[in-house]
Amino acid sequence: MSSIPFVALFPKQGEAETRTMTTIGYGQLPDDEYALVEAYCTDPSCDCQRVMLNVVGKQQMKEGYLAAISFGFNRDGEMAGPFLDPMNSQSKHAEMLLELVSNVLENDSAYVTRLKRHYQQVKTAVANPTGAISQKLARLQGKSGRTLPKSAKTKRKPRPKPNRPGKKNRKKRKRR
Ligand SMILES: [Zn+2]
């Protein structure tokens, strides 16, 4: 599954609508403001109905994602969760963060509704392959070296290198 942060596709809205949790004296968890960075699957043909909540601490940015929590919207589905995603690395704080996030998801139905809305927004945007968001997505995935469709890869020609006169010992490219 290839997924992308919501905020990467919709920066302004993403920043405004990213949930944060401020903790003080919560178990072994460092006091901090924790942001739940949403990532969604960008396969237009996939109806996985889930979000990945990647937790970052504002004072712990250098630690990267402290927990990757998978949450499925279908409460009867096997991906219901929330659970710590086994495909991602988790920090020593992950279990406590899962507990916190589970509480939020249980008690804040408006937030869950917003997550579903964001999911739908991403799926609608990627369903239109020529739309602005799809193009942005292709750029983003190209930049991070992730899988591009094969057609996009093979069509791209290598940029011809300029001939530099002074370098005689340069290996010549084989020509057909
Ligand atoms: Zn999916």
What structural keywords apply?
176 residues; alpha+beta; six-stranded antiparallel beta sheet; 6 helices; 6 strands; binds zinc ion
Would you kindly provide a written description of the structure presented here, covering whatever features stand out?
With 176 residues, this protein is an alpha+beta fold. It has one domain (3-140). 34% of the residues lie in helices and 19% in strands. It has six helices and six strands; from the N terminus they run βααβββββαααα. Strands 1, 2, 3, 4, 5 and 6 form a six-stranded antiparallel beta sheet that branches. A hairpin with an 8-residue loop joins strand 3 and strand 4. The protein is globular. It starts with a strand and ends in a 21-residue tail after the last helix. The chain binds zinc ion.
Give a quick precis of the structure.
The protein is α+β, with helices and mostly antiparallel strands and 176 residues long. The protein has helices at residues 6-9, 11-16, 94-107, 109-126, 132-143, 150-155, and strands at 3-5, 20-23, 32-41, 50-57, 67-72, 83-84.
- Classify the beta-strand content into a percent band: 15-25%
Ligands (ions, cofactors included): zinc ion
**Total of DSSP H or I helical runs spanning 4+ residues:** 6
The radius of gyration over CA amounts to: 21 Å
End-to-end CA span: 39 Å
Question: What's the number of domains?
Answer: 1
What coarse outline follows from CA principal-axis ratios?
Answer: globular
